[in-house]
Amino acid sequence: MTSSPMEYTRLGDTGLEVSRLCLGxxxxxxxxxxxxxxxxxxxxxxDRALDLGINFLDTANVxxxxxxxxxxxxxxxxxxDELVVATKVYGRMREGPNGQGLSRKHVLEQAEKSLExxxxxxxxxxxxxxxxDDTPIEETLSALDHLVEEGxxxxxxxxxMPNWQFQKAxxxxxxxxxxxxVCMQPEYNAVDRHEEANLLPVCEMEGVGVIxxxxxxxxxxTGKYERGEDPDxxxxxxxxxxxxxxxxxxxxxxxxxxxxxAADKGATPAQVSLAWLLHKDVVDAPIIGPRSTGHLxxxxxxxxxxxxxxxxxxxxxxxRPSWPxxxxx
Length: 329
Fold this sequence. Notes:
It contains twelve helices and ten strands. With 329 residues, it is α/β, with parallel strands linked by helices. It has one domain (8-216, 280-305): NADP-dependent oxidoreductase domain (TIM Barrel, Alpha-Beta Barrel), CATH 3.20.20. Strand 4 (56-58), helix 2 and strand 5 form a beta-alpha-beta unit. The chain is globular and about 55 Å long.
C-alpha cells in the first residue's frame, strides 16, 4: 500500500497535537538481545519516523539505563520544538535507598537526569511508569506539579495500573489542585484486551488520552509465528516469554481473522492490527516499536487501512475481555 501523509489528533482533552502513531524507543539500546544494539541504526529509525510525519516519541529512564534517552536526545537535536517527547519515571536507576519509586526525591532527581540525557530544557509528557505502593500519591502528584510549575514538564501521564488507583490519582489531583494526568499508557492490542474491563472506561469518561504499549502483542500480531512451530532463532518469541504467552488457541483464532482481512485488503497483519486500535475512539496514538526502517514504513501504512464494523467484530469475536487478565499481575 502507498502511504499518505501522517494524521494527527489531540492528546485526550488537551490542545497538544500528536501523530496517530507514537514512536516507542525501548528498542534503542543494548540491554536485551532483541534491542537494536547499534546507535547508528537507531538514529536511522528515528530520522525516518520524523520524515514520515511522526512527531511523538516515547522513552523511559530505565530503557537500557538511560541509553535510549541519550540516543533520542542526540537524534532530536536541532528539531526539538516540532516534537512531543515523552519519558517515564519509577524503575530502579541505581542501587541503594531512593534508587527507584515515586518519592519526591526520586522523581525530581530523575527528571533532572532525563533532561540531561535528552539534551533538552523540558519534557513534553512525563509519566509515572507504574504505581508506587510505598509512596502516597499526594507526594508524587506534588512533585510532578512542581515540575510543571517550574516549566521543565508540560504535561503528566501514567501507565499500567488498576483503575481504582488511576481514579484515586485523578480525584486527588482535582481535590488538591495538582496537575492532572492527561494520558494513560496501557497494554492494549487485539489479543490483550483486558483494559477494556479496567482502565479504558475511566479514560473515556475522564477525557484522558490513551497511548497503548505493545500494540502488536510483542510481535505476535505481525503474523510471523505459526501454530505448533518453534519460533525461528532470532525472532523475539525465541528469547521472550512475553510473546510466547500469546500462543493460545483464542489468540490464534484472532490472528486467523486478522490474516484473512489483511489478505483481502492487500495489507499486512501488523497493519490490520494497528488499524484495529486506530479505529477505537478512546485510542489516540499506539506506541509502535520498529527495529528497522522497513518495519517502521509497514507500521505507518496502518494509518491508511480502513476497517468495517463487521471486520472489527470478526477480530474481536474470539475473545471476551476481563480484569484481572489471566496470567497478569
